């Protein structure tokens, strides 16, 4: 047994599954367990508080909720700190197993450490840093970066608002970008978000992003939704050979028709893209650049435009992305860096003809359209979606402001009958969300039974049971009559469905009717389960 304990690989594997308290006890129990235990214990830290406790007890003190140094630091005070900081690979993870008191660092904490540190590099092997979790003042960000070794691979710069609003912090941000470009050439992931000063265009951040793109050849992921990316910066980003994931806010005043990247195949490895953009800017950008390898797209619209721009918007999506690659598409509103609010504009209606270019994306798995425009859906469109997108897993066409609002005169709803087409043609579909459905097709059970089209669909489903495993169905606000008929129809179309989500509005929806549909669906599921258990019990009895 003693021989086994001397095998370092075995001891490290044991320590990997231990809790922090156990690791601390192992590290103190025997020298043979000390090294593997501390290697695991100190690899990931939520912040620098555990390291501060490595200083002698008389060197620091809590002051209320603040942690501050009480005296100057001598070289010998750093021994334990440097030992453990060299092990640290990750700072700023949300680690639930770390029992660290929630101190707020005193403003003198980091300046004192910088003034008395025996070596410039305090974190030589750090690989991942989440600045927000660190807890230091944002104006200390540049000096902290200088204390990190050049092996940093993941950096998340998410200051706490209203950070970087004053001139001092703004200057610190620019300096930090220069340091990142000069030092961290192995950086793979950079997240820069929640910087609320990006309405101010005097910060030179466009040049900083360009410098980053030209310097960080290993960058695989760049999340930067607040800095306005100009043509110059986008041209630099397009040359990043390793870039796979990109989130950016495209400048609205750029003439994207003149965008001509130096690389013959721009964004050659890009797979996921999120654009914060206006419709006119996207139409210009989408027509100027093709991204044939991208399979996940999110377009977050910063403001709305004239009705004539809507058809061109969807046509540009089809033009920019390839049907042989695109699998996920989300179009949603956002409050962009322009600060333009998004009031609902019901007179702007998305028509079925606008969406038809998207049907060419035959590999579509997840489609979300969530805008404050009006939407006019029809059975033919949803039926064609079911045919065009057989791999569909999630479908959401939802106008958020339908909650508490009536349909605009230009808006129409598809009927509940068309859902059978989705059930039969999209076996992987797990979630449907629609801004509304017309479930008032059958005022009575007799009319339901007399509806030949509905009965044909039910007969077809009985002959070839629906393969659907749909579990989530959200109809927002929808007119309904005869909830028993609706429940029967849904139970045949979606055998795994047990309830329906909806939003109640007294002007539009009968809440008790949809509640009864959910009740009946749950009862049907309970009967099915009981019948299945009875058959299983009967089979077991015959076998015995």
Automatic annotation (TrEMBL):
Family matches, as InterPro entries: LRR_dom_sf
UniProt protein name: F-box domain-containing protein
């Amino acid at each position: 047994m003693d021989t086994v304990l001397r095998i370092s690989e075995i001891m490290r594997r044991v320590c990997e599954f231990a809790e922090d308290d156990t690791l601390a006890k192992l590290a103190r129990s025997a020298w043979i367990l000390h090294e593997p235990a501390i290697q695991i214990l100190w690899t990931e830290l939520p912040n620098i508080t555990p390291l501060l406790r490595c200083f002698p007890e008389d060197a620091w003190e809590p002051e209320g909720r603040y942690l501050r140094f009480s005296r100057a630091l001598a070289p010998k005070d750093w021994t334990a700190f440097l030992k453990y900081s060299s092990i640290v690979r990750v700072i700023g993870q949300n680690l639930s197993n770390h029992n660290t008191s929630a101190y707020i660092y005193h403003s003198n904490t980091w300046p004192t450490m910088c003034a008395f540190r025996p070596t410039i590099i305090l974190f030589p092997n750090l690989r991942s840093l989440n600045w927000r979790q660190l807890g230091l003042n944002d104006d200390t960000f540049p000096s902290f970066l200088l204390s990190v070794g050049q092996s940093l691979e993941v950096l998340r710069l998410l200051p706490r608002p209203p950070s970087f609003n004053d001139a001092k912090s703004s200057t610190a941000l620019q300096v930090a970008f220069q340091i990142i470009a000069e030092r961290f050439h192995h950086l793979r992931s950079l997240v820069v978000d929640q910087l609320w000063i990006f309405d101010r265009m005097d910060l030179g951040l466009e040049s900083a992003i360009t410098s980053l793109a030209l310097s960080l050849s290993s960058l695989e992921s760049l999340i930067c939704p607040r800095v306005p990316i100009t043509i110059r910066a986008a041209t630099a980003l397009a040359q990043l050979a390793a870039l796979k994931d990109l989130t950016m806010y495209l400048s609205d005043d750029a003439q994207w028709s003149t965008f001509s990247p130096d690389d013959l195949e721009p964004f050659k490895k890009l797979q996921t893209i999120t654009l914060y953009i206006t419709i006119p800017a996207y139409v210009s950008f989408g027509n100027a650049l093709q991204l044939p390898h991208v399979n996940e797209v999110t377009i977050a619209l910063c403001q709305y435009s004239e009705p004539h721009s809507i058809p061109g918007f969807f046509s540009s999506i089809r033009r920019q992305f390839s049907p042989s690659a695109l699998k996920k598409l989300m179009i949603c509103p956002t409050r962009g860096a322009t600060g333009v609010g998004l009031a609902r504009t019901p007179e702007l209606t998305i028509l079925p003809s606008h969406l038809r270019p998207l049907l060419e994306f035959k590999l579509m798995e997840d489609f979300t359209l969530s805008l404050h425009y009006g939407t006019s859906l029809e059975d033919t469109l949803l039926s064609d979606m079911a045919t065009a997108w057989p791999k569909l897993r999630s479908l959401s066409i939802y106008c958020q402001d339908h909650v508490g609002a009536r349909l605009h005169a230009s808006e129409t709803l598809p009927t509940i009958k068309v859902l059978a087409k989705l059930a039969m043609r999209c076996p992987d579909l797990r979630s449907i969300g629609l801004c509304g459905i017309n479930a008032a097709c059958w005022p009575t059970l007799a009319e339901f039974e007399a509806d030949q089209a509905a009965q044909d669909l039910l007969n077809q489903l009985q002959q070839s049971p629906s393969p659907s495993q749909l579990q989530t169905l959200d109809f927002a606000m929808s007119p309904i009559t005869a909830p028993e008929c609706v429940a029967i129809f849904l139970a045949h179309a979606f055998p795994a469905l047990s309830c329906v989500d909806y939003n109640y509005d007294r002007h539009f929806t009968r809440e008790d009717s949809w509640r009864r549909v959910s009740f009946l669906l749950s009862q049907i599921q309970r009967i099915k389960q009981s019948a299945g258990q009875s058959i299983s019990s009967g089979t077991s009895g015959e076998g015995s």
